[in-house]
Specification:
single chain, ARM repeat  fold, Leucine-rich Repeat Variant, 16 helices, globular, ARM-type_fold, DNA alkylation repair enzyme, DNA_alkylation
């Protein structure tokens, strides 16, 4: 008999393998302390492969149950929910005939609602979902307005969603989304935006065209933050790194 496809069953599966010691370690790592970027979050102590395995067991779950998991105060419940959401979204794109865009849209709207309500509120939650759900939907359906609106948002996590969503385009050889987002985030000196932006620039040089990266750096390195520039230059030669850093 298959697993009961409910949020309660998912939470029970997670509770069976929860590790309090690891929960303490994760709480420190994700800065749940007052003033930390993960302030107030709760952990029960699951590893990411364990969470992926749980999500695999609950394939076919519906949007209401995933939504209930996204409302959990427990970080791992929300990450499992995003793995489930991503899996169900991806399955709507791979039927025998053609994608079910109505169903795909329902999963994307669930995702956007969770982002709006602050349920996708740490870097691992964003990075496991933004490009594979929002970015891929926008790439396939055309239009970048939703990505740009998130990148323009002052909220840390919504802005990071906008930056990471461009990865879907980059993976398919298209730098246009990132170049459109770049003016909206370049001057943001928050560490988690800097890292995301520099990472996407580096991937553009690797997956799209290194000349696109180098041209952008030639024109913008002087105004970029040190962290973003460092991430963007990670795979360049020592001479290139020295040259672009000297432009600041």
């Amino acid at each position: 008999m298959g697993a009961e496809l409910t949020a309660a069953a998912v939470r029970a599966a997670a509770a069976e393998i929860a590790d309090p010691q690891r929960a303490d370690d994760l709480a420190r790592f994700f800065q749940v302390r007052p003033g930390g970027y993960g302030e107030g979050d709760e952990f029960i102590g699951l590893r990411v492969p364990q969470q992926r395995a749980i999500a695999k067991r609950f394939r076919g779950i519906d949007t209401d149950e995933v939504g209930a998991l996204l409302d959990s105060p427990v970080h791992e419940h929300r990450l499992i929910a995003l793995f489930l959401l991503r899996g169900e979204f991806e399955r709507t794109l791979k039927p025998r005939s053609e994608p079910d865009w109505d169903e795909a849209g329902r999963w994307v709207e669930l995702y956007l609602d969770a982002v709006r309500r602050g349920r996708v509120n740490n870097w691992d939650l964003v990075d496991s979902s933004a490009d594979s759900v929002l970015g891929e939907f926008c790439r396939l359906r055309g239009g970048m307005e939703v990505i740009l609106s998130h990148a323009a948002d002052e909220d840390l996590w919504r802005r990071r969603v906008g930056v990471i969503a461009t990865f879907a385009h980059i993976k398919n050889g298209d730098a246009s989304a990132l170049l459109a987002v770049a003016p909206l985030v370049r001057d943001d000196r928050r560490d988690l935006i800097q890292k995301a932006f520099g990472w996407m620039l580096r991937e553009t040089g690797k997956r799209v065209d290194e000349q696109v990266l180098l041209t952008y750096l030639e024109e913008n390195a002087a105004r970029m933050g040190r962290t973003a520039l460092s991430y963007a230059l990670e795979h360049r030669t020592s001479e290139e790194r020295a040259y672009y850093r000297a432009l600041r």
